[in-house]
Amino acid sequence: MTTALHSAAADPGTFDERLARFHAVGRWSAVNDDQPWTPAPRSRPCMWRYANLRPFVWEAAQFVKGDAAALRVLTHLNPGHRDYEAACGHLYSGLQALKPHESMTCHRHAASAVRFVHEGRGGWTAVDGDRIPVSAGDVVVTPGRLWHEHGNDADDGLVIWQDLTNDPLVNTLGATFFELHPDRTHLTSTPARDSLASWGGLLLPDTRRRHPASPLHSYPWDKCRESLRSAARCGHHDPYDGVVLEYANPATGGPVTPTTGCRLQLLQPGESTLAHRHTGSVVYVVAEGQGTTTIDGTDFAWSAGDTFCVPSWARHHHTNGSETGEAVLFSADEFPLMRALGLYAEQTDEPTEI
Description:
Elements: H1 12-20, H2 31-34, E1 46-48, H3 50-63, E2 73-75, E3 92-98, E4 102-103, E5 107-109, E6 113-119, E7 123-127, E8 130-134, E9 139-142, E10 148-152, E11 159-165, H4 167-172, E12 178-180, H5 195-199, E13 218-219, H6 221-233, E14 243-246, E15 261-267, E16 276-278, E17 282-288, E18 290-295, E19 298-303, E20 307-310, E21 316-320, E22 327-333, H7 335-340, E23 346-348
Antiparallel strand pairs: 1-20, 2-3, 3-11, 4-10, 5-12, 6-9, 6-11, 7-8, 7-10, 9-13, 14-15, 15-22, 16-23, 17-20, 17-22, 18-19, 18-21
């Protein structure tokens, strides 16, 4: 069956305007913008200095009260998309503060969260019945859809931690949910658990396949830092990341959440890593030391507490600025998401096939 072409003469000058009325566009006119030939993320390399933001955290604690205190968080906005609340790629990052004797109403949501503690004593978070005391350097994982709540039992001082979540991804996919607990706390109705005792040892429960997200909710700093020292003593070393270890889901050996991975890496005194780039954005938090990360030719000098980001496919390398002290970087990345979608690629200084 043959269909005759429309008899009206073509009018290229008004074609796009007329077609737009029907919510359509000719792909030939947009392909180079919407379908670039190489990764072209909107996110830009960026640095957020802890020393600059910490006074604002304390100031906000004075007037952000009541129900609003649950969102007393300073969001790290990327200059490449200030309208899109992501620090880099689809990773959210922000500094949250809890005041003395303050607690947050229990809630749950579709997004998963990782929290890196910057400072303070008396802080705690509770995840699915596991009430976890936290201190500086600790990492807490809150898998999506689990009841959780936070608090600060200290008499003075703030507890400040960094929220690292996949909220931007969940919102982009139209899959977000949020719910408040009807009793304001889940600790009175949920059996008490101790995930560190159950999942933090050499021997693991024989229920491992049931946990796509980590059933271990607490990764204490002292244990993780000692693991890093042990790895360094054993000669574990990557030329692009130094001594690097992954925060693992003990049930599967995989990442702590299905879409977000976390790593801890050590740079020896004076060490400068080789440059590489990869798909998947990374948000770094400086846990210890000082140095510089060069991202697409621009140097970003950092020290303890600072946050910086490496967008997808940005060439980068790290340098420890001290000749005597070690530097330690914590990071959250999109690698599990990229690998699950079959989109992870890496390129080093040495030419390789992607």
